[in-house]
């Protein structure tokens, strides 16, 4: 008997009955090759979005604990249906909720972190020759409540299970054939990347490449789990996300990523006292809000006010205001303004560490397009620019072209797999 494989199917890959049966056949085929199979499923199609809308229809500020009770149902539906389809193929399957599967998290509802995987129930089921289906995106908190892991969290469920079960590989089946040099929905001639290092994938996911949730990549790097991100519609190999030692020499730039989900907050008239910034960002951290870019204008000699701007995910804007308003009143910030229509474009590449000039090219490319750069941040292998959301697509295409990332010389694939 060969080893354990974890196979994760995303929302599009289980969107309707036909696709659930297709996933079931693929899972059975892995079992017939002799593997012990654990499959992690996402909610079908747009189910999670619909559940969020349903909550917003009944409440302006849905209670996070109840939100998690609601959101966790989508993945359970997929797993139960897929188990039925597998049973009809003559195999035995059991579906488990995140809690039954032993996914233990902290108590931060709607973006919980996995603390432990107690996989004894999965081991028992595998020992009984069952195919195990685990509802993605959810767990049970140390306070025994149902939690969810943040949007895209089924990827993290899959990687965490692969680590706990010492699986050979964590296959992430999705609606694109792998990780591309840019989102193929924006850049049709984007190139499929055969191998990406954890380091680069972390920067890509952190800057908006939602094909793999950021935490899944962090988890994979920390536990050395090989991820194979591939199409659920074809057999072709996809993208391996692995340790840097397994990647060959990297090009200067690997990918252009983007996000349309940024919001900017500007604090006007920030008092010039030590400790004020600490107060502001402690309040945000305590509200579990991830601040991305920060800019502070020093007051000049004319006595002009000091401003501070930073970006947060748009979905956290309301929570950020709730956390900031009392601090602002207390420390004497004059006003807070918001812009919720911001986006971000980034270029990522391990090769830029040793090559100057990347930033210059990014800025001049965006400048030539007449795109205003509102904020900038860099890491050794990434340059990100905040731009207005309507400029994002144009910025991505221009940068992809400027850095010659296209697939011209490489075989062109249909990025969305077989037609639906
Ligand atoms: P799933 O439901 O399978 O988890 P997601 O929608 O979360 O799928 O992720 C797949 C999507 O990620 C693709 O349809 C694609 O539009 C988007 N995407 C963004 N950036 C990239 C990229 N660099 N490479 C591949 N896909 C990307
Ligand atoms: N269903 C959840 C979402 O839409 C989790 C996932 O798909 O990974 O975000
Ligand atoms: Mg996803």
UniProtKB/TrEMBL annotation:
Pathway(s) of this molecule: Amino-acid biosynthesis; L-lysine biosynthesis via DAP pathway; (S)-tetrahydrodipicolinate from L-aspartate: step 1/4; Amino-acid biosynthesis; L-threonine biosynthesis; L-threonine from L-aspartate: step 1/5; Amino-acid biosynthesis; L-methionine biosynthesis via de novo pathway; L-homoserine from L-aspartate: step 1/3
Q: According to its UniProt record, which reaction does this protein catalyse? A: L-aspartate + ATP = 4-phospho-L-aspartate + ADP
Q: What class of enzyme is it?
A: transferase
* Pfam families assigned: AA_kinase, ACT_9
Residue numbers binding substrate: 48, 75
Q: Which residues form the ACT domain?
A: 265-350
Q: Name one GO molecular function term.
A: aspartate kinase activity
Which Gene Ontology cellular component terms are annotated? Answer: cytosol
- EC numbers: 2.7.2.4
Q: Which residues bind ATP?
A: 8-11, 174-175, 180, 185
Its BP terms in the Gene Ontology are:
diaminopimelate biosynthetic process; homoserine biosynthetic process; lysine biosynthetic process via diaminopimelate
What Gene3D superfamilies does the entry give? Acetylglutamate kinase-like, VC0802-like
Instruction: Write out the entry's keywords from A to Z.
Output: Amino-acid biosynthesis, ATP-binding, Diaminopimelate biosynthesis, Kinase, Lysine biosynthesis, Nucleotide-binding, Transferase
Q: In UniProt terms, what function does this protein have?
A: Catalyzes the phosphorylation of the beta-carboxyl group of aspartic acid with ATP to yield 4-phospho-L-aspartate, which is involved in the branched biosynthetic pathway leading to the biosynthesis of amino acids lysine, threonine, isoleucine and methionine.
Q: Which family does it belong to?
A: Belongs to the aspartokinase family.
Protein name in the entry:
Aspartokinase
**Organism (species):** Solirubrobacter phytolaccae
